[in-house]
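step: validate -> pass
step: tokenize input -> pass
step: predict -> running
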Amino acid sequence: MSEETRCPKCHGALSAGGLCPRCAADFLQSEQTEVSGESHLFSPPRPEDLARMFPHLDIIELFGRGGMGAVYKARQKELDRMVALKILPPGIGQDSGFAERFAREAKALAKLNHQGIVTIYDFGRADGLYFFLMEYVDGVNLKQLLERGRISPREALAIVPQICDALQFAHDQGIVHRDIKPENILLDRHGRVKVADFGLAKLVGTESFAAPLSDGTDPMKPELPASLTDAGKILGTPAYMAPEQVKHPEAVDHRADIYALGMVFYQMLTGQLPAKPIEPPSKKVQIDVRLDEVVLRALEKNPEIRYQQASVLKTRVETIVATPSKPIAAQTHPPPSITNMNRNTNKSIRPWAVSAVVAVCLLALGFAMFHKSVKPTRRRPVDYHSLGDARQSKGDLEGAIAEYTKGIELNPHDVACYHSRGDAKLDKKDLEGAIADFTKAIELKPHDSDHYHRRGDAKLDKKDLEGAIADYTKAIEIKPDDAGSYHRRGDAKQDKYDWDDAIADYTKAIEIKPDDAGSYHRRGDAKQGKNDWEGAIADYTKAIELTPDDAGSYHQRGDAKQGKNDLEGAIADYTKAIELKPDDARSYLNRSLAKKAKGDLDGAAADHSKAIELNPDLAIY
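step: predict -> pass
step: emit ->
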């Protein structure tokens, strides 16, 4: 008689492998992804076992486990600092290509140096276990707060912009989280947000069980994926996943994180995840109705209609906070106490805001009296900003400007509409109009570095180099880790032929963002301006390593090689630039000059003719 099959979670009898129906349902509700079907559940190593593998750490305790491994609280002996040690599930390393992918992904994650992202100090493999050594956040996660009672709207409005900052920074580096959920939103003892586990859903290959996979696999019988980055893997936590994450997982981009943030935002405001169809949050709790627009747009099924950038969502939230149409009422039951939330400590975390009891009573009394006389009707206002974004994404700049203008007419303090209208005007080369809109945005919100940066862009296009430099400098003062503003200030200085200062700015941009090929390229341009041929060649070479299909860097390296009379090297680089960009008239022209200097007159004539064919204006050369 064959051995009876049992559920790996409750050990009840099964007619087939996988989870029993009850445990499968509990699994989906739990929003965890830690079951591996017919393989054994991940059993975290004991702290005393890890002590042998990590002699430089004091392993204090296991304080978390899930689909992405187990997390231990530890002390780094030499530095005498608390750290978090994350051990990944042992089964994931069986793929022969995993070690290389792990190193590549981990290096990218380790570059996420931002105050709102849990820092990775080290990574590697010990006794067959892959690990991350990370910043230890002394506090609680958002799920713990939600389990103890609904978060007040004021607290939610303080948390969401911080999450947006972290997401925007990561998205700017090309990294998508893929698993934004309350468990991965940490709050330290001062109420500061830290987002954890960036990119680990992709690295570990944790699968959702909300829908069958494309090959027909039964989602109730999950198995660890054979390949961690195969197309078709559905990565994330079911309740928070964007529709495209299930339907087209291979095409997921940063907008899936914005959808997941919308789910978290909805949950913070209402205390529950949205049902289908999604009801506006204000139908469930008494909040500023304008928050409906923000949440519902983040939760748009079509990613093209959703917020395209986390920074725009942040701006909308901050605009509502700065210009409230009516007070955001407190909840009908007390907000969660943050005192002693962490089961492992008796210390307390101070809340961000305390609701005014008198104001609540007056609001409740006034609402009751009003309700007796008039039955209120709620009309969702038109979100002109969203309409403008939709038009701008389709290239309809005039239409976008018209929608943003309507939004400003409706609310003259709408910072987001001024900024976005400025973007649209800049795209259509209405530089004066763009500068005026960014200036208005600065008046309304003077501590936002993006407004100064974009006004600097408009001034740079207008050739107001001093004005551009001043705006980029202000953006840097507000946000010292803004690599983009250092880069653009370098551009403005280079246009002034201030080579040394331009090189200094590009160097700073590279320090902040070491994989920024554009900053290496432009520093190469500045070095070439100083006739530092070797330095320029080194920078263009680095840019090519980072972006191998960059025809412009090959062209410029060819110029630098021609400058140091390496004619063969220059011809080879121009040839590569032409392969990548066959209609590049200037590469043909410069290759003709190199061939002429080398004595290949026929080759030079052929290249010169091709250059003129592609661009008749080059006939003067």
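step: describe -> Residues 1-30 form one domain.
step: cleanup -> pass
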